[in-house]
Task: structure prediction
Amino acid sequence: MSQIESLSQIEEKLNNLSLTAKNNIDNSNTHEELDQLRVSLLGKKGDLSIILKTMGQLSATDRPIIGQKANLQELITERKNKLNSEALDKKIKKEKIDVTIPSIGTPPGNKHPLISTQDEIIDIFCGLGYSVESGPEIETDFYNFESLNIPKNHPARDMQDTFYLDENRLLRTHTSPVQIRYLEKNPPPVRIIAPGRVYRRDAVDATHSPVFNQVEVLCIDQDINFGHLRGTVLTFLRAFFGDIPVRFRASYFPFTEPSAEVDVQWKGKWLEVMGCGMVDPKVLEKLGIDSEKWTGFAAGLGVERFCMVRHQIDDIRKFYTNDIRFLEQF
Result:
């Protein structure tokens, strides 16, 4: 029969074990070593378990005293947390970036598909003798509407649901104001295009966005007629899309007369891609241009629509999500 031990004897064994265990725990350098210590101390056959088996010999008042002294798990947990912290520090130091080191090269990026599409449109028209002009995106009611034969309360204003900033200022709904500003300072003959961002209060869906890009075309010269307009549009569309079916449909725009919409055949269906027409003489006369001597045509197109047709894209929202997986395809 084993010898019955007193409280002081058990306490002495526990103190000696704690000192040895603490030293071993503090000197453990890996999680493997610490786990081996945990098993040797706290396992079923561990040193602490052997000592605690003798607690049955103690009175009920002495057992809590021994229990308080037997908490080695706390030491093991503290050491484990310290090892984790040291490992994290080493990893951070190893993986830190020295911004002073010269770069070893930057992967090349691609143009956004809308930018490359707009650049191609500009290149085609520049090849036809047109120059590129720009203007403000915040416009006045006069340049955006009135100068283009759209007076206040005119029904045509409903065709372009507008973002108004105040009674007189608005976000332009088309780049046609650029043409008016240019004609104010430059007499005919004129051949310009006006690419830029425009804004309309459209609900967002697969084919509509409140922000999109347009390119407006203007040609003013002597003896310009609808045949020149048709020839220019056909030349441009076939340069961009190739030899595809194109049709003109009679339409209405306040600043051109006669007016037409232009369709191309895409996926077996007709798809509208442009609006165009002969510049209304009233627009020229408001600018002090003799409409008997000078005539011209104007056309407008949406860059997003051309890009969607070119690349077989079915949702305009993909252009604005900045999804790198989508952009890397171009």
Summary: The two ends are 86 Å apart (CA to CA). The chain has two domains: 7-95, 113-327. Residues 3 and 15 are 20 Å apart (CA to CA). Residues 73-95 form the longest helix (23 residues).
